[in-house]
Design a protein that fits this description.
152 residues, alpha+beta, Lipocalin, globular, nine-stranded antiparallel sheet
């Protein structure tokens, strides 16, 4: 009987400790998405991922101040110095590149980490994303592109 009570006390203590340490909806500081407890945006809509929600809006390149990206629903728009109009193409956020050129280059199958534009056959990997910063890796060359969110 004493052993059962001791086991029960340990089990209850473990459950209380586990409940206190869990915080649904928050990621740890070493999570692969680059999101931390302090920079999470509001929860995504019913059929959208957190990465999709965080992408929405206007971003400016940290390397080329004339280069801007806009994610508006499922459209990716880009403009930079010398362009007469925005390059506008539908994109898909997926677990791997959806275009033919990069299918062999992305075996990681990470949830909603690849931005694919089928028409132009381009793909980017989301290295990190927060409410303020976006870091992408262009799959075609492997170069890293960093952006900051443009305030309205």
């Amino acid at each position: 009987m004493k052993i059962r009570l001791t086991f029960l006390a340990i089990l209850v203590s473990f459950l209380i400790l586990a409940a206190c340490n869990s915080n649904p909806g928050l990621k740890s500081n070493n999570d692969k998405t680059g999101l931390t407890d302090t920079n999470l945006a509001e929860k995504p809509g019913k059929n959208q991922s957190l990465n999709f929600e965080l992408l929405q809006g206007k971003w400016q390149s940290t390397d080329d101040k004339t280069n801007f990206l806009v994610f508006d629903k499922n459209h990716r728009k880009e403009i930079s110095e010398g362009m007469q109009s925005w390059d506008d193409e539908e994109f898909m956020l997926a677990d791997q590149c959806g275009n033919e050129s990069n299918k062999a280059d992305n075996n990681s199958k990470e949830k909603d980490r690849y931005i694919s534009c089928k028409k132009s056959d381009l793909c980017w990997y989301i290295v990190s994303i927060s409410t303020e910063k976006l870091t992408l890796q262009y799959m075609g060359r492997g170069n890293t592109l960093t952006y900051t969110r443009v305030k309205k």
